Amino acid sequence: MSRIIQLLLIALTAATLSACGSNVKLDDPQKAATIENRDADAAAAAAAAAAAAANAAANQGSSRTVAPVVAAPQDPLNEPGGVLSKRSVYFEYDSFAIGADYLPVVEAHARYLNANKQRHVMIEGNTDERGPREYNLALGQRRAEAVHRALAALGVAEAQMEAVSFGEERPKAAGTDEAAYAENRRADIVYK
Fold first, then answer.
1. pTM
2. 41 and 104 share a domain?
3. Is 62 strand, coil or helix?
4. Strand order across the 186-191 sheet
5. For 72, which DSSP code?
């Protein structure tokens, strides 16, 4: 804090000295007015700097911080409500065919991955709890591979994708009704 006070005193002293010293003869009114304006501008700038230093000293113990407003480019993956925020493709019972409702989701992720070659995805196939464990693992894999093939058909590089199955092991919704089962029959596109 004492450093801020020192800077404040130095700024005020500089402003005072610049306002007082001049080697221009004051008998020329035009030069005198120019010098006075320059000195007034310097004094105003020094006063503004001193006020900012005093404000910083007053807020030094404060937890409040003021950050400059900078419009950073937002990653479309994090845009709320955007098509890229949808990362699950849902399937009908005992099916691995991508429905027409989910083609725009797959296409949007393909465009994003094609534009961002450094990004990679894990496509995780899932099922509901009905059926034997081995069957559900195989069905989950077929679902993940269906999305993988669709992305590849849209130009996404094989090196950017990996398809895995979790079968019934990672349910999204708990319950034994059709609504819960429908939430669990999916392939999730997970960015790494």
1. 0.62
2. no
3. coil
4. 88-90, 186-191, 121-126, 161-167
5. P
| pLDDT, tens only, 67-79 | 555 555 677 887 8
More confident residue, 112 or 5: 112
Query: Is residue 135 a part of any domain in this protein?
Result: yes
Cα gap 116→156, rounded to integer Å: 10
DSSP reduced 3-state for 60: coil
Is residue 107 domain-shared with residue 184, that is, in the same domain?
yes
The span from the CA of 159 to the CA of 117, in Å, is: 9
Give the relative orientation of helices 29-58 and 2-20 as an angle to the nearest 10 degrees: 170
Alpha carbon of 180 to those of 6, 143, 183: distances in Å? 67, 18, 5
Q: What is the domain extent for residue 25? A: 2-58
Whether residue 52 has pLDDT greater than 50: yes
Stated length of the chain: 192
63 falls within a domain: no
User: Looking at the predicted structure, is the pLDDT value of residue 3 above 70?
Assistant: no
Alpha carbons within 13 angstroms on the beta-carbon side of residue 159 total 5
pLDDT, tens digit (0-9, with 9 covering 90-100), for 138-179: 999 999 999 999 999 999 999 999 999 999 999 999 999 999
CA 11 to CA 47: how far, in whole Å?
8
CA 22 to chain centre: 54
